[in-house]
Structure formats: structure tokens, C-alpha cells
Amino acid sequence: MNDLENDHERLVRMALTRVPSRLRGAIDWLRVPSRRPARVLASLLLIVGGLLSFLPILGLWMLPLGLILLAEDVALLRRGVDNLIIRIERRYPGWLAASR
Predict the structure, then answer these.
(1) 6 within a domain of the structure (yes/no)
(2) Residue range of the domain that includes 34
(3) How many separate domains does the chain show?
(4) pTM above threshold 0.85
(5) Cβ pair 56, 75 in contact under 8 A
(6) Degrees, nearest 5: CA angle 3-23-27
(7) Is residue 100 part of a domain?
(8) What is the model's pLDDT at position 98?
(9) What's the pLDDT at 37?
(10) From CA 87, how far away is CA 34, in angstroms rounded?
(11) Which segments cross the bilayer (predicted)?
(12) Which of 49, 63, 66, 97: disulfide with 43, CB 3.0–4.6 Å?
């Protein structure tokens, strides 16, 4: 792994500390490289669910989770997600690490 991949992995791990533990196992399962089709489908469904957050059960929390999963396969999106995680950590120090 090169430095960019290590940085991305560290940032995603840091962001996923805010995810409820019951979802963390599924996200770890989806992040395995060989599960790309399932990951892309799940990320698109999460993004759509996040956009429909005005409906009961669905929530805005689905949108960033879907983007993080989709960023595993789209390099341009990966850079944007990494920058967003860095900005959140700078603006709210310790917030991403609060659930550890």
C-alpha cells in the first residue's frame, strides 16, 4: 500500500467510528475489494435513501455512508471524501474519535 491508500484507510476508519456497531460489520464486509458489485449497489441505495431522508425510517446519515462506500471505487470521489473527513476533524477536533 502506498501513502495515499494508507491515509485513505486511516481517514475512513476514523469516520466509521461514528457508525453504530451493528452496521460496522456489514461495512467491513462490503469494503473487501472482491465485493465491488455489492459495495456499489449498497452505496447507491444508501445515497438514494439519504436523498429521501424526509421519509420515515430513511435518514440523512445514509448519504455520507453511501459516499464513503462509493469512494472505495471512484478515485475522484475518494479524494473529495478524504478532504471532507479532514475538514470535519479540523473543525470539530475529537468528534470523529469520540466513539472509539
Answers:
(1) yes
(2) 2-91
(3) 1
(4) no
(5) no
(6) 35
(7) no
(8) 54
(9) 95
(10) 30
(11) 40-63
(12) 66
Residues 77 and 44: beta-carbon distance below 8 Å: no
- Three cell numbers, residue 2: 502506498
Domain membership of residue 67 (yes or no) is yes
| Coil, strand or helix at 32 | coil
The per-residue pLDDT for 66 is 93
* Phi, psi of 17, rounded to the nearest 5 degrees: -65, -20
- Give domain status of residue 55, yes or no: yes
- In the block, residue with C-alpha cell 462509493: 70
Q: How far apart are CA 80 and CA 57, in angstroms?
A: 28
37, HSE (Cβ side, Cα atoms, 13 Å): 0
